[in-house]
Amino acid sequence: MSNHASSAAHDMQAGTDLAIQGEEYDAPAPSKARPIPRISIQAFCEDPRTAEALQAATADRRLAKSHVSVHMGGAPAAVAHYLESPTPNLIIVETTLPKAQMLTELDRLAESCDSGTKVVVIGHVNDVLLYRELVRRGVSEYLIAPIGAMQFIEALSGLYNDPATDPVGNIIAFIGAKGGVGSSTVCHNAAWCMSELLKSNVVVADLDLAFGTTGLDFNQDPVQGIAEALQSPERLDEVLLDRLLTKCSERLSIFAAPVVLDRDYDISAEACDTVLDIVRQNVPFVAVDLPHTWTPWVKRVLLQADEIVITAVPDLANLRNAKNLVDLLKQSRNNDGPPHLVINMAKTPKRPEISVKEFASALEIVPMQVIEFDSETFGLAANNGQMIEEHSAKAKAAQQFRELALALAHRREPKEEKKPSALAPILEKLRLKR
Hints:
This protein has an eight-stranded mixed β-sheet, sandwiched between helices. With about 425 residues, it is α/β, with parallel strands linked by helices. The chain has helices at about 50-60, 75-80, 100-110, 130-135, 150-160, 185-200, 215, 225-230, 240-245, 270-280, 295-305, 315-330, 355-365, 375-385, 390, 395-410, 425-434; strands at about 15-20, 25, 40-45, 65-70, 90-95, 120-125, 140-145, 170-175, 200-205, 245, 250-255, 285-290, 305-310, 340-345, 370. The chain has two domains: about 15-160, Rossmann fold (3-Layer(aba) Sandwich), CATH 3.40.50; about 170-410, P-loop containing nucleotide triphosphate hydrolases (Rossmann fold, 3-Layer(aba) Sandwich), CATH 3.40.50.
């Protein structure tokens, strides 16, 4: 057994509340759990409810790379199994045995464990002395039943993510409910605000290889970019990544699309996984600008992302498409909150629209932001290769993108303290005389 006791993953800051159209948007608190590496996990349960919780956890995006198998029989079954078979990276054993018998079975299990194998025990007794004895014997973690799927995932994350190192970065995927709804504009402005407000490094990854606008929006003309990384993902390391990224500001870099039509782009889901994993190891935030298309790799990026932003225009086609996306994501991401919704180009003159209230009600999601139609501000910013706040800091959309960036990062914007009035001492004296 490994002698390393588990430690909890890094806490992230609490979510923020944003007032949207008279309603409150509650940014969901981020989970402590981070992605689990490509490991093999075998569990031996006694209670069917524990087995069900572990099976539910296997469907979570954070365990997508892990191979998990769940068996019944508890510690005796585990001991018998590993007399004939090699041990995996992680063994999970549920036991209801008395303390002395439990320790005896675990000692027998230790005799068959390969070097480097971790063991997690799920028990039914809350006993700190037992916990200390298990840790002394090399058990990595002791969980008390009953446990839920998310509790199990967070425990594994604590085992395989060293709190002494920087946590892996968050991947935020942006997709439009329909083409031309401004998803790229929302992505680029939110990423820029995130880099400026949080003073954190951010990478914008443009996966619309043929028609991406990241280079135009940031007034850059990179020679190389994300296509080279996707073509040979196994070659990508920190040195090559630094060469392929284009720096737009002190803290913002872009992984630009080639935007040429004389090449065929055959992207694999595995290549996307590899490239984004390497990027997230080097920066705290990765904003992924997805094209409005539906392929295995687009679906994979969405399902594996930490946060998802759907941008939609308030019309019927957008409502239908957004509803399909939301339903799929809610079904496939049981342990995550729903995707976020940004309604863009609202109140466009002479265009019939579905009201924001009806749109949100149909999706059962309160929009993070409702950005009104402003062709002059957005058009001039785009033509100048600027973000909205760079072009017009007083524009309403500039503040909305700030709020969006902070909500996605689960941060709060510091409030300015009101300066005391010069009349305050006099008014205080009058109040006391009364």
